[in-house]
Amino acid sequence: MTELFKRELNALWHSPWQLALISYIPLIGVLALWWLFSAGLPRQLPVAVVDIDNSQISRMLTRQLAANAVIAPQSYANEAQAIEAMRQTQVYAMVVLPYQLRKDLLTAKQPTIDIRYNSQFLLVGKLLSSQLQLSLAEGLTQIGQQRLLLNGAKKATVDVSLTPITNQTTALFNRNNNYVGFLVPPILIALWQILSMLVFVNSLNQELILHQNRYYLPKQIWALIATKILFYSPIMLLHGGFILLWLYHYLGLPAAGTLVDLVLAQFAMLLALWLIVLVIFTALRDSARSVSFCTALFAPAFAFMGITFPVNDMPLLAQWWRLVMPSSHYIDSHVSVISYGVELPHVLGQISGYWGFLLLLPVIVFFGNKAKDIPRTALTSSSLNQEVSK
């Protein structure tokens, strides 16, 4: 085992790409993604405003939109220009103030204010949808108050007449609606999963033996796999621990539970990830295909975590795909520890949900043993290649 560790360390030292994957690339990726969301909340998002009425009330509503820190209204002459601006992503939403808006409001009619947003930008679209409705509702409430007062209503009963029921929405675990605490942790976990996959699959690809346009595995493949798991698991756990320390100690994001419990959950996630990669590697036995297949499998990890989109509303295929990703199982433990402060027994119960990945072991053994049927000439060429590499 000591010789195998030395061999793995020597292979790592002579592979600049592998060294980059376990050293500075994860750090740069973590810091860059955090920097993108460091503002905490999107501000001054461009919104097209089409003022067809061009009245005092429509201009007041436009000023009401501009008073919202999230919205940056931009005037357009007609609806066609605003729609074209949305298609070219120059604006994220549009508001159409209809003709005779002022007249309809003063005569107690119900005019329609058209609000559209680009749902391809999921979070931006939802944020603008709520903020646009909120800003317009505040402006229209002021007009309603003036109309009721002119009709002789008492000032004390005006607010009750307009809003008999007042709703208050309080985010339990994100009171400031900070996107850093909401989005950055799952994004970094998805990045960490992809980098861990790349590190492991690249290391496995170094063991392939080419003979007559076919790839085989060496006889000692199981010892090599065990060495790689013991070698790379602590390294990737260091990066996972760095993510937790950066978010919940350096940045000071609120954490109700113990981070050590999450490190244990990360270790279980890594083991499940290694098993999936081993199935793909032993089945394909091709470096390019293995990397491509694994990347395609784990690329939508963030979308399938259920953080920005409800899991129950996903298509059935997406829900099955989600179950294959170890990050989807880990995020449940992450949210439980960070938000609810659950203790170790509960985390261990969630980790036990990884048992289904153990069913991959017979598949790995089957493909691995099948790939070890190397012709005698291949063994000779493999030994010569090893001597040349030495």
TrEMBL record:
It comes from the Bacteria. The chain crosses the membrane at residues 21-37, 179-201, 221-251, 263-284, 291-311, 347-367. It is a multi-pass membrane protein. Keywords: Cell membrane, Membrane, Transmembrane, Transmembrane helix. Residues 17-366 form the ABC-2 type transporter transmembrane domain. It is found in: Cell membrane. This is ABC transporter permease. It comes from Shewanella metallivivens.
